[in-house]
Amino acid sequence: MDAVRQALADETPLLIEGAGSKAGLGKPVQAALTLSLASLSGVTLYEPEELVISVKAGTPIGQVEALLRENRQRFDFEPMDYGPLHGREPGLGTMGGLLACNLSGPRRLNKGAARDHVLGIRAVSGRGEAFASGGRVVKNVTGYDLSKGIAGSFGTLAVLTDVTFKVLPAAETEETLVLRGLDEASAIGALAAAMGSSAEVSGAAHLPAYVAGGVAKGGLGNEPATLIRLEGFAPSVRARSSHLGAALARVAPLERHEGEASFALWRDIRDARPFADSTERPVWRLSVTPTRAPEIVMALRMRMAAEAFYDWQGGLVWLRLDGEPEAETIRAVIAACGGGHATLVRASPAVRAATAVFQPQPPALAGLSSRLKQQFDPNGILNPGRM
Q1: Are 144 and 177 in a shared domain?
Q2: Looking at the 3D structure of the chain, how many domains does it have?
Q3: Fewest CB within 10 A of the end CB: N or C in the chain?
Q4: Rounded CA gap, 317 and 309, in Å?
Q5: Cβ 124 vs Cβ 38: under 8 Å
Q6: Which residues pair with 46 in a beta bridge?
Q7: Which of 340, 338, 293 is nearest to 319 (CA)?
Q8: Tens digit of pLDDT for each residue in 310-352?
């Protein structure tokens, strides 16, 4: 709080940072000083029987997940690790950054993102005022749910100091059904059928041939792979896998990956590892209507050199380009194909500075965002320019 108050008094903008694993997200911040939260680390409360954990904002996500695994629990929203995509080591991200960027993974299909699992926060606003929201129980009524408002704000509204999350039991086992050789439109159709079944699918992705070799250390080979994940108690997974597999085997050749092999596949899909190539080639994250995703990708390929793969049954498209970021073209194609939004998640600092990184907001929503910023950080000292 003192650091923010001093910056406010000196009219000195601050870059808010944990481990810096997501420094490449958003526009480059125009700040004179860095406020590091890396030393603000540690678990302050963990009650496995109550399914709740509270930690300091600078606590590494990997450290928390290791603790949860010891108790056969997990974050059900499967937070992505952006480090490898930006040329950093995996496992550096912090819990404050997790919420600030509203991270999620393949399970977002039915489990939501970080904002859907946060129970409470403590933070310091750009006014230099400490505040709290929510609590340490799953059900609470404490006024405005500022915890969800902070989610996805990229450190522009407040400096998080403590976060509390709901956790859930980890699945006893998992299995991934892999269909081989499908084209993209057929794959999205198969994923839609699987999601509409009674199999309780927790992951649905498609990797074209040029991407498949980039996951699980090449374990899928270089043939198109359509992946469907099932999780839960072992007898239930076996029964659901048998039933769903029998139906899908009529569509294409079928493989099964279990346990650690399945986990490795989805970890790499979660972290966009096929595009973690130690370059600054532009990478986009498109959120679109699942059934329109192959059409959108085909339209983009006709206009630019692009590679893509699909998560969330096609609702999430990861797109890597060979040249300019092409923001206007990408957003125009999406708008013509049912709508959605596009976020530039990797590019050089110069390219990010010159590009509309985030999807432009409609006027009404932009006005609401502006008023929210005015209430929390009227002098604009927190991560100025990032959004």
Answers
A1: no
A2: 3
A3: N
A4: 6
A5: no
A6: 53
A7: 293
A8: 999 999 999 999 999 999 999 999 999 999 999 999 999 999 9
